[in-house]
Structures are given as structure tokens and as C-alpha cells.
Amino acid sequence: MNDPSDVLIVGGGPAGMMAGYLLARAGVRVTVLEKHADFFRDFRGDTVHPSTMQVLEELGLLAEFLKRPHHRIDRAALTWNGRQMIIGDLSHLNMAAPFIAMMPQWDFLDFLREQGAKLPGFSLRMSAPVSGFIEEAGRIAGVRLGDGSELRAHLTIACDGRTSLARAMLPLESLGAPIDVFWFAVPKQGQGHELRGVVSGPQLIVMIDRGDYWQCAFVIAKGGAEAIEARGIAAFRAAILAAAPELTGLETVLPDWNKVSLLSVSLDRLTQWSRPGLLAIGDAAHAMSPVGGIGINLAIQDAVATANALAAALARGEPVDALLAKVQARRWLPTRLVQGAQRAMHERVLRPLLQADLANPKQPPLAVRLFNRFALLRRIPGYLIGHGIRMEHVRSPRTDG
Ligand SMILES: Cc1cc2nc3c(=O)[nH]c(=O)nc-3n(C[C@H](O)[C@H](O)[C@H](O)COP(=O)(O)OP(=O)(O)OC[C@H]3O[C@@H](n4cnc5c(N)ncnc54)[C@H](O)[C@@H]3O)c2cc1C
């Protein structure tokens, strides 16, 4: 059995790895439990935003982080039925890194693992699936692992994403999402690094630059995957090519459906993020839509707020149950505003687009036209995506020397 003064973190995603790092930095003994053997999964998104890099700068890690291979993107482009548009600009942000660093998420998590390993209190256990919580006298006292063993903790933080075990114990509000995503990779021709959206008729493809290939998200109406698959892979390839002619060689890249993953999109949140002994943050507390590509960064912000609220008390070995609600109180407003914006995009743009129900499909939405026309206005989406609402600063102590 472990020392009951430890903190256990369920899930080694962005929220879990950053929370683990910050708490260990403050002198807390933390164990991060990750069910997979590695970080290598494609569904997680590749964007490290200025707000996350600001946190790395405050931790003195930014220069080291930027030594890892990445591409820098400071504007978002959209092709709407053949019309090229610029809809976001981050280059004017007054921040340490006024751009999005495109880096596969496994590299970002590996970087956090490397930094965590330098701290005496940090421990990461891979291939350690948590199967449930230990509950004693109404309090969560630790976790049960898949092999039946138990680990006890002063505090358990659920960072296990949108299918979190904590969701069985805390109230959940679903906001619904009208989209799902087919996800696939296509070798890239030519140079230039960007984040590109392509709208062609009722079709939307988001193309994320990963250096020598595009990671593509083909957005479909929720529940529409079976019908698309039934029409066959050749019809799917033709739909891709019609929307984005630069995606060539599809017969070789997508010979069958095995190279295409279906990702179910959800938008929801816990209305209560904690109970005695347990706190949920990141997607565990609020599953985000891929719209805006900000889920990773919100998860990081939650982790910073968690350490700010709890690290000092945890390091002193004090009870923290009474402090847990502070994390939700701090992060509730940005969560609600971001999810509200994502919901508006779902309902006002994506649902009508996918149902071929836009009043004038050739005409981009007004906001898109305004952003494209007025360079100053483009800074608004740039600010919201790059800086975010209520950006967190590292205030947790550093006691690791
Ligand atoms: C299609 C799609 C594309 C996206 N693209 C982007 C993007 O470009 N940019 C962006 O910022 N966001 C994007 N997002 C959202 C983003 O992936 C999430 O918001 C973000 O990863 C949340 O981080 P997290 O640490 O809270 O959870 P997760 O990243 O989900 O991490 C949870 C971790 O917990 C582990 N785990 C789960 N259950 C257990 C268990 N029982 N025991 C132990 N470990 C467990 C998992 O293996 C995982 O490593 C996208 C989402 C989708 C669906």
C-alpha cells in the first residue's frame, strides 16, 4: 500500500500530466496512472496554444519545449467554396509565444513526462488502468487498479477524459453535438505550414499540418457514419477530392476503411466537479468539441488552477476537501463561455452546412466575411483561441529546489 498522503491522478493526458508536474514541483508526491502503454494516440489534437506556452514560460520550460520539432501557425485560413479567406490572426498577441505550436500530442506529453521525471515527487505509471474508486465513509480514499490492487490517496484527481470514471459519481449535463468526425492522414505535397478549413458544398474538411502529411478531419452529421460507409470507400475518396483537390493519391492512402477512424464528438460538463477526496478536471469535467481546437489548452488551464488552489495545502499535508470547489468556481466561467461558443458554431454553422440548409451556401457566414475583410477584427478569434478567457498564471509554489 502507498502512503495515504499521496495524490493520485487518473489519466496521463494534458490535464493529468500538467497537474502532476505542478503538484510535484510544489513538493507533493504524485502518481499519474495512465491506462495505455504509451502516449501514441491520434485522436487528441496537435495544437499547443499561446496560453499553454505562457504557462511553460512561467515554469521556465518554454525554450526547452520549443526545441522539439514543431511548426508555428499564427493565422487560420478557410477555403469557402473556392474562396480563400483568413479568419484568425494570433501574431499580435502580447504573449511569450504568439502562435500555435503544431506538435503531435504524444510529443507534448512526452515533454511533460521528461520534465516530471526530474522532480523527486513525480511518478508516472503506464499500463495502469484504474477500474474504480475506493470509497470509505462517503469519501474517495483512492483507486482500484485493473489487476485488483488498491492505491490510497489523500486526494484523487480524475483526468481520464470524457469517459471518466468520475462521471458515475458526479452530476453530468449533456449539451449535445450534431457532428462526428472521420479522421485520416494524407501525404502532403508542397511547402507551407497552416491550419486549414475547407468548405465545399455541404462538406467540411479540417486539415492539420503535420510536416510531411495532413491530418484530416472530415466532419459529418452525427450518426451519419454508417450511411457514408455503406456508399463505399471510393465514394468517400471522391467526396474528399471534390472538396480538397490537393489531397491526392487517395487510392493508395485510403484503400479501405481501415485507414479511417471515426471519432464521436461530445459536448458536456459536470455541474459539480468534486466530492470529498475526488476532483475532476479537463475533459473529465467538460468534454469539448474539436471546434476551435482548444480542449487541450482548457485542460492545461484547469491543471494550473488546480495547483494554484491546492498545491500549498497538499504540500503541507493539510486536508483539502474544503478547497476542491475553488477549482470549479475558478474554471466554470471559461468552460461555460467556450462551450457556449462551440455550441453556437455547431447549431448556427455546422448543422445547417452539413444538412445543406444554409440560406446561401455560396456565401460564408457574416462573421467569417468580416474577419476576412478587416485585419483588425481577425485578432478577436486570435485572442479567444490563443489567450482564452480568464487565462491562468502559475501561482503554485516551487519547492523542488
Ligand atoms: C476529433 C477531435 C479532435 C480534437 N482536436 C483538438 C485539437 O486540435 N486541439 C485541442 O486543443 N483539442 C482538440 N480536441 C479536444 C482534446 O482532445 C481534449 O479536450 C483534450 O485532450 C483533453 O485533455 P484531458 O487530459 O482532459 O483528457 P484526454 O486527453 O482524453 O486524456 C485522458 C487520459 O486518461 C487516460 N485514461 C482514461 N481512462 C483511464 C483509466 N480508467 N485509467 C487510467 N487512465 C485512463 C487516457 O488513456 C488518456 O491518456 C479534439 C477532440 C476531438 C474529439
How does this structure look, described?
By secondary structure, the chain is of the alpha+beta class. It folds into two domains: 7-71 and 99-174 and 267-345, FAD/NAD(P)-binding domain (3-Layer(bba) Sandwich); 179-221 and 223-264. It is 31% helix and 25% strand. The chain contains eleven helices and 21 strands. The strands form five sheets. Strands 6-5-15-16-17-14-18 form a seven-stranded mixed beta sheet. Strands 8-2-1-12-21-20 form a six-stranded mixed beta sheet. The model has no long low-confidence stretch (mean pLDDT 92). The structure holds flavin-adenine dinucleotide (FAD). Flavin-adenine dinucleotide (FAD) binds at residues 10-16, 33-36, 43-47, 129-130, 159-161, 165, 181, 217, 263, 265, 282-284, 288, 290, 293-297, 299.
Attribute tags:
single chain, 401 residues, alpha+beta, FAD/NAD(P)-binding domain, 2 domains, seven-stranded mixed sheet, six-stranded mixed sheet, 11 helices, 31% helix, globular, binds flavin-adenine dinucleotide
How are the SSEs ordered, and which strands pair?
Blueprint: E1 7-10, H1 14-25, E2 30-33, E3 47-48, H2 50-58, H3 62-65, E4 71-73, E5 75-80, E6 83-89, E7 100-102, H4 105-116, E8 122-125, E9 130-136, E10 139-145, E11 150-152, E12 155-158, E13 172-174, E14 179-187, E15 195-200, E16 203-209, E17 213-221, H5 225-230, H6 233-243, H7 250-253, E18 261-264, E19 268-270, E20 274-275, E21 278-280, H8 295-315, H9 324-354, H10 366-373, H11 379-386
Parallel strand pairs: 1-2, 1-12, 2-8, 5-15, 12-21
Antiparallel strand pairs: 3-7, 4-7, 5-6, 9-10, 10-11, 13-19, 14-17, 14-18, 15-16, 16-17, 20-21
Helix pairs in contact: 1-4, 1-8, 8-9
The structure holds flavin-adenine dinucleotide.
